[in-house]
Amino acid sequence: MAVKVVDISRETSPTVYGPAMLRANRTMIHSSGGMDSRGWLQGDSLKAGEPVSTHDLIGKDGTCYVIVKNTMVAWHAGVSLWPVMGRLVHGLNEDTIGIEIENSHTPGDLITMEQHAAAALRHRYHSMMRGYALDACVGHYEVAQPIGRRSDPLNFVWGWFWFYVYNPSSAQNKLGGL
Ligand SMILES: [Zn+2]
Asked: Of 4, 25, 43, 154, which is the most exposed, with the fewest CB atoms less than 10 Å away?
């Protein structure tokens, strides 16, 4: 895998993530709405009253920072709803891997091709490691409740993401080869 992975999960406060994740069914893509989110996702959010975290945070250059290991529950989905086996299930943190893409949400600040490539390769990695389908990936906006509460990932081009998911060698080339 050509993604540069920096594991900083040992520095993440256990106050912002949950217990062992017993099963994982899908990946959820987010955009951060701010730059340099590491401190926020590793414990500072608790001081603001709403602890949040994620599994991966992808920087502008495609570097992936592991905030919470994919064997633990991260708190990234908020209040959400999703049909699972014909039932509507509340709260997806318990079975969803979160990938947060750093983006300021300001006009003209595009999610880079390196970020799309890295997100695709990390989604592949999580689907393989946790045993779920390669097409099992959603955007936060699709499941957040009430509908319209979240619009992220903003500036994310799903067509590029899915191209890289199914053409991983292209993603690796974008990130500088093997
Ligand atoms: Zn989100």
From this structure: 4
Helix (H, G, I), strand (E, B) or coil at 115: helix
Q: Which of 54, 62, 150 is nearest to 99 (CA)?
A: 54
- Calculate how far, in angstroms, residue 31's C-alpha sits from the geometric centre of ligand 1: 6
pTM over 0.90: yes
- Summarize pLDDT for 82-139 with one digit per residue, the tens: 677 777 767 789 999 999 999 999 988 999 999 999 999 999 999 999 999 999 999 9
CA 176 / ligand 1 centre spacing (Å): 28
Distance 100 CA to ligand 1 centre (A): 7
- Number of helical H runs and strand E runs in the chain: 6, 10
- The CATH number for 68's domain is 3.40.80.10
For ligand 1, the distance from its centroid to the CA atom of residue 32, given in whole angstroms, is 7
Q: Compute the distance between CA of residue 2 and CA of residue 6 in angstroms, rounded to an integer.
A: 12
Domain span at 86: 5-174
Domain total of the chain: 1
How many angstroms does the Cα of residue 59 sit away from the middle of ligand 1? 16
Calculate how far, in angstroms, residue 151's C-alpha sits from the geometric centre of ligand 1.
8
Q: How far is ligand 1, taken at its centre, from the CA of residue 53, in Å?
A: 10
- 45 three-state secondary structure: helix
